[in-house]
Fold this protein.
Amino acid sequence: MKKKAKKERLRDRLKEQIKTHKKAFALYVILRLLVIITLVLQLIYGNYENAFLCILTLILFLIPSFFESRFKLDLPEALEIVILLFIFAAEILGEIQNFYNVFANWDLILHTINGFLCAAVGFSLIDILNRYDKFHLNLSPFFVAVVGFCFSMTIGVLWEFFEYGADKVFHTDMQKDRIVENVYSVALNEEGKNVVVKVEDITETHIITENGEYTINNGYLDIGLSDTMGDLLVNFIGATIYCIIGFVYVKKRDDDSFAQKFIVRMKG
């Protein structure tokens, strides 16, 4: 009887979510269908790593509804749509369809959105605790925004640690290398002095290894530093944008404002 009651309550919650988030549910169905088609094609082609990414994507799609039902949260439809599109753009378009290499700024766009979304999570959690009498918090709108910003930047840094670790341990290229034309380094100083040697407008770089020789035109191969700093910078931008929006909302509590479309709240 208890199991039946739980299932009925779960069904009722799902029906309620579908009614209140019709656009997000329609997008969820479309994206899920596209991922399933991609999964079948990857299995046919024998690309099992990509097939795993498809399965992971299907699981990640369930996160918004899981948090809504498990923790009785109300995710605004606009925020839910952004989350679904972000997951699809990162895993399916970015990794499987190779958008990271096809479009130069694809990774930066996603990291900007990631900064925005992570700030939404951190900001909303503190705002909920701030308004929940049980926790006796009374942080000002400014400090709520600061906590949301710090949460987003921390997640961004941890992700860069993960990328660096994966590249070192598993020899992946998550920190996408870039061609850089100029070098400013004291390591090239032949006298061993702490004086920067400028090497500008590099036209060609040769890499000689036991397995072969490689030529890089118009620069040298940066090993991920530019990518990491660029990712953190746009994460900073995304987090700042969200925290400004959230600060304005908490300050005025205007439910008709643009900000409330991205603020997570408790149900009831």
